Amino acid sequence: MVAAGLLAFSFVTFALGAPLLREPLHVHDARSAAPQGFQASNAPHPDTVLNLRIALKQKDPIGLIDKLYDVSTPGSSNYRKFLSKAEVEQYTSPKDESLAAVTTWLDSHGIKAKPGATNQWLNIEVPVATANAMLDAEFSVFEHQKTGISAIRTLSYSVPASVKPHLDFIYPTTSFPVTAKRAISSVHFGSGAHDNSTAHGRRASVDASCNDAITPACLQALYNIPTTPATESSNTLAVTSIESSSASKADLQSFLGKFRTDMPSGTAFSVQSIDGGQNVEFQASIEGSLDIQYTVGMATNVPTTFFTVGSDNGDDLTGFLDLVNTLIAQDTPPTVFTTSFGFPEALVSPDIATYIKFTRLHSYLHRADCGVDDGEGGDCTTFRPTFPSGCPFVTVVGATQGTSPETAAQLSSGGFSNIFPAPQYQSDAISSYLSTLGSTNAGLFNTSGRAYPDVSASGINYQVTINGTVTPVSGTSASTPVFASVVALLNDRFIAAGKPAMGFLNPFLYSTGKSALNDITEGNNPGCGTNGFPAATGWDPVTGLGTPDFNKLLALSQ
Ligand SMILES: *[C@@H]1O[C@H](CO)[C@@H](O)[C@H](O)[C@H]1NC(C)=O
Ligand SMILES: *[C@@H]1O[C@H](CO)[C@@H](O)[C@H](O)[C@H]1NC(C)=O
Ligand SMILES: *[C@@H]1O[C@H](CO)[C@@H](O)[C@H](O)[C@H]1NC(C)=O
Predict the structure, then answer these.
(1) Rounded CA separation 328/308 (Å)
(2) Any idea which positions bind Ca(2+) (predicted)?
(3) Are 263 and 297 in contact, with CB atoms under 8 Å apart?
(4) In this structure, which residue's CA is closest to atom 8 in ligand 3?
């Protein structure tokens, strides 16, 4: 009997190529419940195929962060000595043994992985029944009550001990669909209210009309942004669009013909598609029009690419991940990357948030909107931060209004992350702000978190051409492309002089760079039934360190 049993056992083993007795599984990630709004409806058919992505453990993610600070901090002997893609991959690639451990495990379940977006990723297609068994999971159909979005997810998954140290996470198992938020706060059709009340203190060169209507000329005067065309074709500015937000070349031409008569009206932008995204010329959106007109129309002659993310991805957060991976995979990524879309941080699982920390060194500018709330609606018992504003490697831009004086715009978002701790470059700025703040808003925000925004720029009543009509638009969606354009023009000057581009800006901005910014000290960002945070002298979580001065930044960042 024993012999027969052994024989049968080895036969089965041989046939399946794996031992029958599997290693015990250990929980890799779990959540106590689905995010608010999602409810489990029914079990999916066991044969339904799931597309899962496996993120392998990177060789040395901490080493890469050390290196990032080393090349980004003024005074370091490696300042702005950026790594090549191959050098970055020495930190981010998995170890051979990690790839082997995960591949062996997958093989034992008869699964063949395909290469993913970068060498850190593997893609697998696996039926629900197999996924449930190999991951000790319970994949269910979850439906969102309000939006009707449905997705197959699990509340927990496990992996064998021999795989655990080699696997970062499996996506999107416990990560639920998240919809992007745009940073447009208002669009007025018709003329805005006129307020000349504080006109006496206006900066000398800024036209009075700029208090009501922001044009490229207003921003050039406010921030000393040059009109001289950039010369360096290798210096590209990336504008990103999620949620099929299109920009029209005809509207851009009409905008330039009206507001930048010194530029060739045929100045255009290129388009790169991700996940089936399309730039539909005749379906111009407010966001796409604003973002393109205030990059192409500000960063004079800097080559600009519009990355349009489509819907072949499951949800906007996955689209964002695909966008990030596309940029990471480029041999020569854009030197500046601006996006006006974001997500409520509470809905983004920490593993994916941590992954999207940016493993290539370029300036990434992100908008911050909605005061101290994430705009998700429902009860707001504590301030709700947004993602990726809380990421320490992103430069987050808040909004100001007016020119005389320039004050915080109420829509300017500010806050403290619940995922990312405050980085060292920011700790002095935060502690001096918190000591002036006293007990205001105590208990409503996480004092140990990474705080934002870092900087700001004008954000109210931008003149934008949409479907041939000039329309005033407000939001940090306006501020971010302008700050990105300033950085792109600075990079052009540096590259022309044989110097490197600026890269990750924050360690510079919080040290030598801060005196190149106009400190904004008035205004606040209400939300969650409070007045939000007040602006103050120095850094504050409404306007950050302040608005740019091109000439001072050029002088200080040499
Ligand atoms: C405000 O300034 C505009 C010129 O920009 C002028 O036409 C208008 O009369 C002024 N309004 C007030 C109330 O002073
Ligand atoms: C512009 O016009 C197109 C075609 O009529 C329409 O689909 C689009 O929504 C319009 N854009 C805005 C922002 O109104
Ligand atoms: C506060 O932020 C830290 C990161 O700095 C995080 O570890 C902690 O969980 C957060 N607290 C809450 C209540 O979210």
Answers:
(1) 16
(2) 519-520, 538, 540
(3) yes
(4) 418
